[in-house]
């Protein structure tokens, strides 16, 4: 006998938040991936940074599916994400930003349509896609079977787009960090979490985007400082060495396979 699904009213509300700026070429696919979800309790929020292209026309096109949207200048990506948190009423926060997609139409139903109990955090895997939506493979860093705040000593093992966090334990993004505030945000949430569940599912499709050398360098420096703050200097240096050895081993393996 199949397990009976719980009443819709007993299911947790999910605040799904999309941040966008001049995303006319990507926002529609993201919106569609959200509104196609079979899960019945979604609060969809879009925060736009004052786009000058056709982004607002696309948002308005899907207005009946959007609980709240805002368009105004902001101080950057993480400031916009903080605005999304301020307007969220759901039990869970899930950020799927412009260009990124929920893995399939049943993802949220597969995660949440059960009688509970519901943990503080759900996490899963991520597939990388190009601008046409074609899969390029999985992330180099893979989610561990068991996750806690110390897991990120080896880097951001779980993609930000593949983490659902209870609003009760979610803080704001620290705007000191311009490129890695999501890394800091997830660690803080993991520290506060009383229960963390591995869904063993691919949760999101992450759009591979080009990063300038300057921004990439800044992100690496910020991550080092964040890791130093949470794990200490000695531990951070040690695990950076482990990360370097692992990366070199992967490069060697790829070259050997190509021969």
Keywords:
20% strand; 259 residues; alpha/beta; 7 helices; globular; nine-stranded mixed sheet
Summarize the structure.
The chain is an alpha/beta fold and 259 residues long.
What does this structure look like?
It is a single chain. With 259 residues, the chain is of the alpha/beta class. Strands 1, 2, 3, 4, 5, 6, 7, 8 and 9 form a 9-stranded mixed β-sheet that branches. Helix content is 34%, strand content 20%. The longest helix has 26 residues, at 233-258. The protein starts with 13 loop residues before the first strand and ends with a helix. The chain has helices at residues 27-35, 55-61, 77-86, 107-112, 181-192, 213-231, 233-258; strands at 14-20, 42-48, 68-71, 92-95, 101-102, 121-129, 135-138, 163-166, 196-207. It has 7 helices and 9 strands, in the order βαβαβαββαβββαβαα. It is globular, with a radius of gyration of 19 Å.
What is the secondary structure topology, with strand pairs?
Layout: E1 14-20, H1 27-35, E2 42-48, H2 55-61, E3 68-71, H3 77-86, E4 92-95, E5 101-102, H4 107-112, E6 121-129, E7 135-138, E8 163-166, H5 181-192, E9 196-207, H6 213-231, H7 233-258
Parallel strand pairs: 1-2, 1-4, 2-3, 6-9
Antiparallel strand pairs: 4-8, 5-9, 6-7, 6-8
Helix pairs in contact: 5-6, 6-7
What is the overall shape? Answer: globular
Q: In sequence order, what are the helices and strands, one letter per element?
A: EHEHEHEEHEEEHEHH
Give the helix level as a range of percent.
Answer: 25-40%
Outline the low-pLDDT stretches.
Answer: none
- Sheet bearing the most strands, described? 9 strands, mixed
First and last CA, distance: 53 Å
Taking Cα atoms only, what radius of gyration do you get, to the nearest Å? 19 Å
Number of helices: 7
Strand content: 15-25%
The secondary-structure class comes to: alpha/beta
Number of separate strands: 9
Mean pLDDT: 90
